[in-house]
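The aim of this short unit is practical: by the end, you should be able to scan a pair of folded records and say something sensible about each. We start with the first protein, listed as its amino acid sequence and then its structure tokens.
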Amino acid sequence: MSAGDNADLRSRARALGVVLLPYDPEWPARFEEAKAAILAACGGVVTAIEHVGSTSVPGLGAKPYLDLMPGLRAFEDAAAMLEPMAGLGYEYRGEYGLPGRHYFTRWVEGDTHVWKHNVHTYAVGHIEWVRHLVFRDALRGDAELRQEYWDLKVALSNQFPADVDSYSRAKSDFVERVLAAHGAPARPPEA
């Protein structure tokens, strides 16, 4: 892929949503760089940072967005992250639809490997913390499951190329099936 092609895809992703790329072996290194920066800025409050999402699964293609999951002792501890994360260029988005989460995002400029960071911050042990790790580990440990997920993602990216929300929702049945099969806790029913 040429630099021009990558710039076109990046513009499309910002404007429309769903751009999938083959697995990039640079993703783990980019995660380690982002993890180090967040720990340096927020280390007094963050107890761990996990690499989750598709970029955390070797061999699985993905949107070139890193999903980082900092762990806290308590939900309220995230207040101490707001200023340091803003200093790193992250925008705070609140719970963003998931109770118990503090969500931050940042577009990454000038990197052909990673275009965006999504930071999902939970108290360690929160149900969503556990679900993220179970799903990641299930995909890491099963090549057939990984391929099934990739095939689904490609089909859905073709079906919803301009609608990242519909693309994400359409993956839900697969995700829930994998989580249930691997013993993850179910989300409580919405009130």
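Turning to the second protein, read its sequence before its tokens, just as you did above.
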Amino acid sequence: MVGVDFVEGMLQLGQLKLRARGERRVRLLAGDALALPFADASFGCVASAFLLRNLADLEAGLAEMRRVTAPGGSVVALEITQPTLPGWRQAFRLYFHRVVPAVGALIARNREAYTYLPQSVDRFVTPVELARLMEAAGLRDVRVRRVGLGTVTIHVGRVGHADHSRAAARAHAAA
């Protein structure tokens, strides 16, 4: 198992947590989600949690996740989303935009990071739009599941067996 993060501090914290649990099967690497340091079709599953809304180029990030996923494998993305239930949407928005930054300021002493969080979710694409972008990146059978009263959405797409052979042929022809 391999974990990748762009921020060295996150990798250091992750390494400390892995050591504390005695976990030796996970390798953590510094890397950019827009240029993953892996060969094509390296993994049976590529998963991200709360990453996509932070990418400078969402389409390129999805294409890169697809590139390193083996035929028959899955790309899974977990993202915070705006709930759609009437009443709950307004309550969540109040909590997310007012309470979360205040708690972040008190506990983490970083109001800015916890103000950025709801703003980034507000700017991010809807679950339906993300599903379309995953399909445009070449993922098949994209499924969307809302959990946590709609505050979190799980997207799963599959890499088809013919997808990699077509991509490899294009890359070979361009070389």
